[in-house]
């Protein structure tokens, strides 16, 4: 069974769900099917980009002035490459001009069916945003695309569990519903703090499991200990980098196709990682650029809250051409994640601390965060520790990663490290940029 020292404490609440199944089929069924087919394309759709720019210019308060200040207008764009002449949109601007970014066409029904959200703040700059209902339902189109791409077999049937979303956040809703756009299969959000969560997951027998690496690490532990036996066809990971060792373990223990995908709360899925390790841009969903080493996204799906050349705060470099996996089109080749989540080694090069996840996930704590404070010094913030922590192996692995001896100070936090409603920030560098 699972180690009781690692049980998760959380505040859970039931969330009412507006079903309206027939309405979803009528309103979004055709568009979702078209989106699924369009995802197979490699070339950015020029017509969709032009329509997005027109919607931004004609229907919002913010963009007409921003475009005019840059000396451009929507009608100027005749090639996708000309998007580079349009102004960048910072996270600070989205926060400050939030209301001015809404389309004038937004109705009360749009707000009721959409999502007024706030990002987790993992970039250091949390922002408010609005995701329209079509963008929310397009996630099903994304799953159908991956299902077909990886030849996962027949789609789930109406009486089966299609998708389970795993969660480890300190405060979270739990709910279930049906997915009319996925053959009426069941969707369930499952928190690891629920009583008998592992057995519940086994009974649900989902065809798709999705979550962040922290919740998937918990799944891996449950399977390894014999607390849970599941055989999903597809496992999806997002929010922060999925360690290769964890992906391999899940692949071997479940037989599932494991896909790490890049997504923003403000936009939805942007790219997915192939079997060769490249992140392939979903060209039907977004135009992706790299500006001064930062990933910049133009969302093609949501014209009720258009994001044009949006600076994500993520680091990456773009590539193009055919991949050995068989896919073509733009890729995020050197994806480095969030600035604040990358450590710097002895030579100043950025390194990925998520390689330490297997060691960190074994700690008998409820929450943790690893911080690089200065050269040769790191701090491990922990909450809910059930005993003394041996960090010798972790310090050795971190020193090898940074190519210099690094001491780790353990700091017990009386309050939860992750505040209610936030995604976990597992790694943070406090070194000056």
Summarize the structure.
This protein folds into two domains: 11-338, 3-Layer(aba) Sandwich (Rossmann fold), CATH 3.40.50.12780; 342-429, GMP Synthetase, Chain A, domain 3 (2-Layer Sandwich), CATH 3.30.300. The protein has eleven helices and 24 strands.
Explain what this protein looks like in three dimensions:
The N and C termini lie far apart (44 Å). Mean pLDDT is 86; it is low at 1-8. The protein is an alpha/beta fold. The chain is globular. It folds into 2 domains: 11-338, 3-Layer(aba) Sandwich (Rossmann fold), CATH 3.40.50.12780; 342-429, 2-Layer Sandwich (GMP Synthetase, Chain A, domain 3). It is built from 11 helices and 24 strands. A 10-stranded mixed beta sheet has the order 6-7-4-8-9-10-11-12-17-16, sandwiched between helices. Strands 13-14-15-18 form a 4-stranded antiparallel beta sheet, with no helix packed on it. Strands 23-22-21-24 form a 4-stranded mixed beta sheet, covered by helices on one side. It has helices at residues 21-38, 46-59, 62-69, 91-96, 108-113, 133-149, 197-204, 213-225, 244-254, 357-360, 392-402; strands at 11-14, 115-118, 128-131, 161-167, 171-174, 176-179, 185-191, 208-211, 234-237, 257-264, 268-273, 279-281, 286-291, 294-299, 310-315, 318-319, 331-332, 337-338, 343-344, 350-351, 367-374, 377-383, 407-412, 427-429.
């Amino acid at each position: 069974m699972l180690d009781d020292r690692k049980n998760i404490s959380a505040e859970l609440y039931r969330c009412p769900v507006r079903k309206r199944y027939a309405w979803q089929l009528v309103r979004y069924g055709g568009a979702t099917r078209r989106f699924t087919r369009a995802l197979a394309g490699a070339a950015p759709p020029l017509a969709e980009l032009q329509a997005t720019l027109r919607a931004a210019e004609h229907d919002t308060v913010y963009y007409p002035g921003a475009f005019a200040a840059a000396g451009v207008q929507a009608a100027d764009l005749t090639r996708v490459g000309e998007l580079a002449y349009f102004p960048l949109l910072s996270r600070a601007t989205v926060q400050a001009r939030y209301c001015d970014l809404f389309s004038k066409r937004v109705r009360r029904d749009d707000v009721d069916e959409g999502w007024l959200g706030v990002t987790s703040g993992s970039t250091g700059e949390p922002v408010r945003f609005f995701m329209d209902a079509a963008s929310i339902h397009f996630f099903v189109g994304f799953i159908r695309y991956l299902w077909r791409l990886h030849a996962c077999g027949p789609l789930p049937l109406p009486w089966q569990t299609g998708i389970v979303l795993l969660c480890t956040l300190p405060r979270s809703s739990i709910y279930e519903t049906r997915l009319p756009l996925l053959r009426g299969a069941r969707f369930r959000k499952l928190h690891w703090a629920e009583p008998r969560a592992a057995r519940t997951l086994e009974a649900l027998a989902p065809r798709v499991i999705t979550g962040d690496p922290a919740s998937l690490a918990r799944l891996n532990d449950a399977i390894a200990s014999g607390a849970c036996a599941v055989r999903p066809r597809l496992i999806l990971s997002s929010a922060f980098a999925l360690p290769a060792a964890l992906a391999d373990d899940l692949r071997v223990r479940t037989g599932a196709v494991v896909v790490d995908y890049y997504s923003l709360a403000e936009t939805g899925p942007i790219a997915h990682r192939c079997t060769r390790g490249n992140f392939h841009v979903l060209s039907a969903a977004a135009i992706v650029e790299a500006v001064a080493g930062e990933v910049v996204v133009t969302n093609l799906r949501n014209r009720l809250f258009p994001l044009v050349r949006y600076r994500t705060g993520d680091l990456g470099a773009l590539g193009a051409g055919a991949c050995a996996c068989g896919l073509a089109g733009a890729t995020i080749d050197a994806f480095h994640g969030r600035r604040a989540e990358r450590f710097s080694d002895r030579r100043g090069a950025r390194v990925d601390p998520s390689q330490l996840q297997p060691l960190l996930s074994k700690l008998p704590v409820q929450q943790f965060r690893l911080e690089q404070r200065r050269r040769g010094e790191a701090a491990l913030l922990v909450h809910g520790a059930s005993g003394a922590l041996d960090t010798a192996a972790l310090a050795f692995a971190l020193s090898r990663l940074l190519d210099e001896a690094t001491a780790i100070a353990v700091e017990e936090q009386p309050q939860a490290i992750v505040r209610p409603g936030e995604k976990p920030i597992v790694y943070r560098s406090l070194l000056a940029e």
